[in-house]
Design brief:
Distance between the termini: 23 Å
Structural class: alpha/beta
Number of helices: 7
Helix content: 40-55%
């Protein structure tokens, strides 16, 4: 069975679980992107927890009005710490996926955060290379869930 890219907002989180935002998804949310707002709204209506890795706000730092909006948005979501467990999982993902930690460290931490979250888990991202590869690697690591990638 082939993978399908989820495009309709109601498909983002129809069974509760967790929705994780990467830097681009968080940026779009702070910029009031209508499509992303619909996805977040669908997730919340379906009792999904919306999560942001603690490293993601550092990637998305903004000032001015967007900075204020970003702080407001972040206050609504669960900020997942970069714990020893997340760091270990990120290392395993990098090894399993055959990716370089220097280049893919933040992506690995975000995917590890997602892979350790309550299932079903969806990861909202614009990345079409490293993040999907890391998500597929999660399926091969004991104790990790494979996040479903939703391209934003």
């Amino acid at each position: 069975m082939g993978r399908q890219r989820l495009t309709r907002s109601r498909q983002v989180a129809r069974d509760g679980g967790t929705v994780v935002l990467d830097a681009q998804a968080l940026s779009l949310d702070a910029e009031r992107d209508g499509r992303l707002a619909a996805m977040i709204g669908a997730a919340e209506r379906n009792a999904a927890r919306v999560v942001v890795s603690a490293v993601t706000p550092l990637e998305v730092r903004r000032t001015g009005r967007i900075g204020e909006r970003l702080r407001f948005v972040l206050a609504r979501y669960t900020i997942a710490p970069v714990s020893d467990r997340v760091i270990a999982a990120a290392g395993e993902l990098l090894d399993t996926a055959g990716l370089d930690g220097h280049e893919c460290l933040v992506d690995a931490l975000v995917v590890a955060t997602a892979a350790l979250s309550d299932t079903p888990v969806r990861l909202l991202t614009s990345d079409r290379s490293h993040v999907p590869k890391l998500c597929r690697a999660a399926a091969r690591v004991d104790g990790l869930a494979e996040p479903r990638v939703v391209v934003v």
